[in-house]
Amino acid sequence: MSGIHGTIRIKRIYDPPADDDGFRVLVDRLWPRGMPKEGAAVDLWLKDVAPSTELRKEFNHRPERFADFSDRYRAELGTNPAVETLLELSAGHPRVTLLYAARDTDANNARVLLDYLVGLAAD
Question: Tell me: the pLDDT tens digits for 63-107?
């Protein structure tokens, strides 16, 4: 697997798109509530990189479950071919922004995914 070539960052999908977002990838399995598709400025909706439905429901955005969620999501990512898609996107774009809908900016799937990708680059 190749490393991260461009810069990847995360951002809430409800925040306005910015010129420096680069290629915008929604990394949630469900479309965000109240977000019209035409206003989201999403270049790719990569549902397959999101946590499994079972894991997402068990986590349910409860902070006390985040550590377990992170470990289990990382295990899912270890066998997920969609991770390679993100790495390829980072090779082809100077900036990739991973979009998520969660209110919590620290305890969410995009944060775990970003940390996972950075870890791959460090290996």
Answer: 999 999 999 999 999 999 999 999 999 989 999 999 999 999 999
List, in sequence order, the alpha helices (H) in 32-80.
Answer: 53-59, 66-77
Tell me if 59 is assigned to some domain. Answer: yes
Residue 1 counted as domain residue: no
Model pLDDT, residue 2:
40
How many separate domains does the chain show? 1
Q: Give the whole-angstrom CA distance, residue 52 versus residue 75.
A: 11
Could you tell me what percent of the chain has a pLDDT over 90?
85
Q: Structural domain of residue 16, as residue ranges?
A: 7-122
Query: Which pLDDT band holds residue 6 (cuts at 50, 70, 90)?
Result: low
Residue 71 forms part of a structural domain: yes
Q: What are the CA-CA distances from residue 61 to residues 3, 54, 68, 116, 122 (Å)?
A: 29, 13, 12, 19, 28
Q: Is residue 2 part of a domain?
A: no
**Residue whose C-alpha is closest to residue 99's, from 46, 20, 37, 56:** 46
